[in-house]
């Protein structure tokens, strides 16, 4: 066997290997998850990474996102309430395709549900403004900034993380005004986005993840986020146009507005 023949075989193998890697890179979908440094966002990141997706996880303080760093996700700084931070994120992703955007970053309020959230007598304007800034305005302007990236996908998906507490007919307590109002407003954001020509061809949904044992959900919750987010990932990756503009529970069942 001549050296020239061996060289030809080596060149062919290298070419086939390179073609294979390029093919995998071309077909690998990219998911961007806001608020990925803990809770539901972190669990979703793990599930998508394990399933072969390229995940971009955002965090307000990436240097402190210790567990997120172990997931092999790409980490980008993002404060969804900051115009400058949103613009910086969009600039760093310029020209790249985003197939799935999960607007997950959320804020319950200054007090957890186990700490007696504010009723009308002690509710502050700041609490309302902070909840609306994170839960309602954040998803609007993050999605706006990433429109060029989403439009590069063959069928982009936008998931706005809502809650059953946003449902107008849902039995509710007389507290946590900021959280409930901002999430109900987010549902209208979803319905408006679903009809927006800028997102023509996309699938846009609101998703209620259920009550999970996280820092926000507290120990009162009945769901293990590792298991519930596995179902959420399955739902998101199996979305079809029939889901577009709807409100869905983590197990795939429809929710009323």
UniProtKB/TrEMBL annotation:
Keywords from the UniProt entry: Signal
Pfam families named in the record: adh_short
Keyword Signal: yes
InterPro entries reported in the protein's UniProt record: NAD(P)-bd_dom_sf, SDR_enzymes, SDR_fam
Signal peptide positions (record): 1-25
Top-level taxonomic group: Bacteria
Sequence similarity: Belongs to the short-chain dehydrogenases/reductases (SDR) family.
Protein name (record): SDR family oxidoreductase
Protein species of origin: Rubritalea tangerina
């Amino acid at each position: 066997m001549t050296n020239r023949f061996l060289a030809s075989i080596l060149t062919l193998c290298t070419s086939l290997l390179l073609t294979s890697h390029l093919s995998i890179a071309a077909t690998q979908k990219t998911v961007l998850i806001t608020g990925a440094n803990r809770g539901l966002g972190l669990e979703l990141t793990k599930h998508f990474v394990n399933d072969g997706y390229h995940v971009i996880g955002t965090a307000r303080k990436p240097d402190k996102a210790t567990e997120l760093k172990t997931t092999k996700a790409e980490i980008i700084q993002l404060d969804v309430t900051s115009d400058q931070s949103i613009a910086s994120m969009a600039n760093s992703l310029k020209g790249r395709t985003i197939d799935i955007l999960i607007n997950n970053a959320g804020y319950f309020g200054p007090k957890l549900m186990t700490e007696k959230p504010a009723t009308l007598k002690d509710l502050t304007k700041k609490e309302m403004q902070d909840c609306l800034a994170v839960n309602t305005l954040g998803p609007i302007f993050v999605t706006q900034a990433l429109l060029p990236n989403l439009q590069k996908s063959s069928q982009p998906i936008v998931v706005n993380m809502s809650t059953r507490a946003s449902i107008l007919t849902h039995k509710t307590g007389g507290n946590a005004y900021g959280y409930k109002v901002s999430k109900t407003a987010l549902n209208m954001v979803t319905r408006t986005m679903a009809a927006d020509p800028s997102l023509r061809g996309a699938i846009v949904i609101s998703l209620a993840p259920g009550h999970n044992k996280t820092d926000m959900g507290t120990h009162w919750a009945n769901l293990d986020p590792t298991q519930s987010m596995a179902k959420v990932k399955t739902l998101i990756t199996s979305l079809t146009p029939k889901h577009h503009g709807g409100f869905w529970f983590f197990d795939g069942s429809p929710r009323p507005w």
